[in-house]
Amino acid sequence: MQKNWLERTELLIKENGIEKLQNANLLIVGLGGVGSFAAEFLARSGVGKMTIVDGDTVDITNINRQLPALHSTIGKSKVEVVADRLLDINPKLELVKINEFLSPEKMEEVIDSQEFNYILDCIDSVTPKVTLLLMAKRRKIKIVSCMGAGGKINPAKVMVRDISKTYNCFLAKQVRKRLKKEKIDKGIRCVFSNEIQKEESLEMTDGANYKRSYYGTISYIPAIFGLYAAAEVINFLIEKDE
């Protein structure tokens, strides 16, 4: 007799917890170093329905930290690579793939297309990030937002706090500033690191896809951000009352 692949999970969270995860519908925006790991941990927990969004393709510079990035996948769509992997983990997963960078209009369309229990913001550029946070907040959809994993090296400094409690993170600072203009200064759960960013690892860019600069990144820090985001969502889902 074939064993149930969720046997060990069920021992821990019981049948009721498994059922809550199977009934959950999640939206993950961004499948880089953070989002790809978050999606994997959620799929392995037995989440039943997921929409994954990213318009990017795998680049050789992604190999140091992103789950879909291998020499064999360079040039391939991140959404397609991640989707194949998630369905190999759980063939029964109801998966919607959106292979594009979301304009504000498209973002609104995606959020309103289904009833999501939770949104994971794994976007690494300020404007789309703030847009997603505002849309979730205005619709009262639970969201966890991942801040800057670049320029950091100490895993013990990563934590989940309300956005008002974030510090030593330039991305979080910019996001807080933009949200304040919209009269929002708290009420969003954030994964961030309070380690001081290594300034010498900063690189400027041409500003494509809203991105003006990026920090050097080590293999494990984005994965830890993804792990914390997934844990935040899973613990909320299994603890909430029907």
TrEMBL record:
Write the record's keywords in alphabetical order, separated by commas: Membrane, Transmembrane, Transmembrane helix
Q: Which residues form the THIF-type NAD/FAD binding fold domain?
A: 12-240
Tell me the organism: Kaistella chaponensis
Q: Does the keyword Repeat apply?
A: no
Transmembrane regions listed in the UniProt entry: 214-238
Name the coiled-coil region(s).
none
Q: Which Gene3D superfamilies match?
A: NAD(P)-binding Rossmann-like Domain
Q: Which GO terms describe its molecular function?
A: tRNA threonylcarbamoyladenosine dehydratase; ubiquitin-like modifier activating enzyme activity
Species classification: Bacteria, Pseudomonadati, Bacteroidota, Flavobacteriia, Flavobacteriales
**Is-annotated flag, keyword Transmembrane helix?**
yes
One biological process term from GO is: cyclic threonylcarbamoyladenosine biosynthetic process
Put simply, this protein is called: tRNA A37 threonylcarbamoyladenosine dehydratase
